[in-house]
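Entry 14. Ran structure prediction on the chain below.
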Amino acid sequence: MVEIQLLTKKKGSRWNSYYSEEKTERETKRCFFLVMASLLWFTVNEKKKQTLI
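Output, structure tokens:
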């Protein structure tokens, strides 16, 4: 009984670390996407200003 619990604990912790790694990767991608989107938006706005003037 104790062995089974230890095995599931090991499996669970491994899965948790994998999940957290995937989660941080997703967060990084989201931050990168936000930065790129804001840069694109900024450049488009700058071009609009130049065409207006």
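The longest helix spans residues 2-52. Will compare against last week's run tomorrow.
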